[in-house]
Amino acid sequence: MTHARPKKIGLVALALTAVLAVAGCSDHDMGTTAPGASAPAANPTGSSSASAEFNDADVMFVQMMLPHHEQAVAMSDTLLAKSGVAPDVAALAEQIKAAQQPEIDTMKGFLAAWGQQETGGGMGGMDHGGDDGMATDAQLKELDQADGAAGQQAYLQLMTAHHEGAVTMAQTEVRDGKNAGAVDLAKTIITTQQQEIGVMKDLLARL
Which end of the chain is more exposed for a tag (fewer CB within 10 A), N or C? Predict the structure, then answer.
């Protein structure tokens, strides 16, 4: 009897040690799994930048820039359907479409990852006011009805204002945004569209 109790205590101690060791391993696993699940580097597809942290400025930027880009693509399609458009102007319209359509897809991916809705209405009916540069229904109708010569002039004028509005919106995102992917997109928009503004002003001066 004198040896049974110490043996029992020893077994209990071993059992507790095993339980604590398992618990310690579990805590360690949880601590490494959770950060790894949300860490951008853990996702080789690059989509992690969309699902990483974001704020209201990111959401507003994407929700406003998405229809803005959609309208730019629609305006470019309208111009490219006309005959008599100068090759340089047509090439610019194609360039704008080529740059903005992939960005549209990217922004839709951002909103889906963030669980946010698209605002819609990018084709017209958006008399926003302010400095976003969106064309009104009346301006879009003028562009649609103009012939090639008048249409290209209207297109360049509208698209210059359109780009200037986009640059302003993108600068706000760079300043206030939190999501790395959205901020990088804004920086790309600023660089690309400022260059295109210069080209459009040059074309307008030569038409």
Answer: N
Other Cβ atoms within 10 Å of 34 Cβ, number = 10
Q: Which amino acid is at 138?
A: A
Could you tell me the CA-to-CA distances from 91 to 72, 161, 197, 200 in Å, in that order?
A: 14, 19, 14, 11
- % the chain with pLDDT above 70: 70
CB contact set of 196 (below 8 Å; sequence gap of 6+) = 92, 95, 96, 159, 163
Q: Output the pTM of the full model.
A: 0.72
Q: How many CA atoms lie within 13 A of 139 on its CB side?
A: 22
Identify the residue whose tokens are 């706000």: 172
The greatest distance separating any two alpha carbons of the chain, rounded to the nearest whole angstrom, comes to 110
Say if CB 55 and CB 179 are below 8 A apart.
yes
d(CA 67, CA 78): 16
CA–CA separation, 21 and 24 (whole Å): 5
Q: Are 122 and 69 in contact (CB under 8 A)?
A: yes
Residues 174-191 have pLDDT tens digits of 999 999 999 999 999 999
Q: How many Å apart are CA 51 and CA 178, to the nearest integer?
A: 12
Of 94, 104, 115, give the one whose Cα is nearest residue 159.
94
